[in-house]
Amino acid sequence: MTARDILERLWKKMRVTNNMMRNNTLLHIQRNKAAYNDYFAQYATQKKIQKPSDDPTIAVRALKYRTTMVEINQYLKNCDDAENWLDATEKPMDKANEILDTMIDYVTNAANDPNNADDRATIAQQLREYAGFIYEQNANSDYAGRYLFTGFRTDVPLLFTDTQKDTTYTITEKLDINDINTSNFVYGQPVYDASYDADDYANAASKFLETHKISLSYNNCDVRDVQITYKDSTGAVQTITAVTKSIPNNTVYNEQYKPGDNEVYFVPERGELVFGNGIYDLVRNGSDMSVVYDKTEFDKNDIRPEHYFDCKAVNNVTKVTKNYTNVGEQKINYQINFSQTLTVNTLGCNAFDTSIGRVVDQVYDVMNGLDVMEENLKAVKKRIADCDPNDKETLASLKELGNQIETEVALQNTVLTNTYSHAITVFQDAKNTLNVAVSDHGARYNRLKMTQSQLDTLKIDTDEAKSENENADLEEILVNYTEADMLYQAALQATVKIIGTSLLDFI
């Protein structure tokens, strides 16, 4: 028997029953209804799938795109927050830059014009107002309740809000050896003494001397011998103990500016280190100089040391000690893109130099000295006017005293002019420091704007990819939906013809 004969015999034995036809009919109708329902759901929701099992590939991609969109939106929000912080930081720095330009012009004019006592008082007051505006209105700026230039301690102002006398700060201040200033000063001050004759006054004449000094960031420091360390020309660390030389203890006017060759004076009232000629020659070729000193009494609007220096603060009442370190490394970073951060803050110690206020103090001190000298000169002239013309010896001694004080006034005016010139240099250096901070700020701002633009483009691309992955094509859905409807209706009609009236039993 051939294979064909076997197949024909098996075929004849197969019997298609009504039950088989009903089951197959229901199966096909159900499949058509399922397809019809799927296309209807796509048409109603405009989505390719309704649940992950419909198409796991589309579902996985949808999760990926949605996660990416959430991250991009968060990065864009971070960029907006960073931009607001940068905008708030830029304004006070720009304003401080304008004020420094004004101060440079103001001091330049003061240096080139003769000043009387009233002029000097106006200049001193104006300079203090300018310096106060830079520190109080700009360096101490805040944004949304957070201080802009104080690093991580955004809740602590840059300046003291009131006088502070109960905490002693031990400050470690780094100094640039190149900032040691060679300047002139008036040494000795002739004053009236009833026992002096003309020769005595001539011998007490003021001298115009030269000194080497550098100002610390604070005046009115605590009285104590301070330690200075530096690296010499060979790189070896050297330590110098500066001798405290308080102004009230002077026996000669400006004695604090005349140390011995191998001495360094620490003048706590003015916050200055004064170097003798010999030790200055050793130090000037070195590097990495620093000094440790104490300060307890701070005035309102003085800079808080913890924002500028490594220091230790000891509360003299509670004995609580706080240590502040790494001041220059307090960077507030915002994540603005995938694996990309941006520093949004600018530190006050990197933008607003403390030397601005200190050189104003120096100008003020020289002016005060000049005022005293001029008052002494007026007093001597009054004595000359009141002196008996017949008392030749007294009259001669008073005239000699007057001549010496006039010389002293002339010398002090030269010192004042030199101090003005030094102030111009200090203000220009402070402006350069501020400009570096502004440039760094601008570079970070430009980087932020480029990142924002990149994120905006990435958001559009990701949104398009997400839409292409998830959203259904309405035209295609409509065609498929119409086709499924036709197939479903055709299946019903075919079933009616095949099964006949028995179809009613299944409806």
β-strand amount: 15-25%
How many beta-strand runs? 14
Topology as a string of helices (H) and strands (E): HHHHEEEEHEEEEEHEEEEEHHHH
Structural class: alpha+beta
Strand order of the largest sheet: 4-5-9-8-7-6-10-3-11-12
Distance between the termini: 48 Å
Percent helix: 40-55%
The biggest sheet, with number of strands, parallel, antiparallel or mixed sense and barrel status, is:
10 strands, mixed
Q: Any overview of this molecule?
A:
The protein is of the alpha+beta class and 507 residues long. 54% of the residues lie in helices and 16% in strands. The protein has 10 helices and 14 strands. A 10-stranded mixed β-sheet has the order 4-5-9-8-7-6-10-3-11-12. Strand 11 and strand 12 form a beta hairpin. The protein starts with a helix and ends in an 8-residue tail after the last helix.
What keyword list fits this structure?
ten-stranded mixed beta sheet, rod-shaped, alpha+beta, 14 strands, about 500 residues, two-stranded antiparallel sheet, single chain
Strand and helix map with partners:
Blueprint: H1 3-13, H2 18-45, H3 56-112, H4 117-139, E1 142-143, E2 146-147, E3 167-175, E4 181-187, H5 198-203, E5 207-215, E6 226-231, E7 237-244, E8 264-267, E9 272-275, H6 277-283, E10 287-295, E11 310-315, E12 321-324, E13 333-337, E14 340-343, H7 348-351, H8 355-386, H9 392-470, H10 474-499
Parallel strand pairs: 7-8
Antiparallel strand pairs: 1-2, 3-10, 3-11, 4-5, 5-9, 6-7, 6-10, 8-9, 11-12, 13-14
Helix pairs in contact: 2-10, 3-4, 3-9, 4-8, 8-9
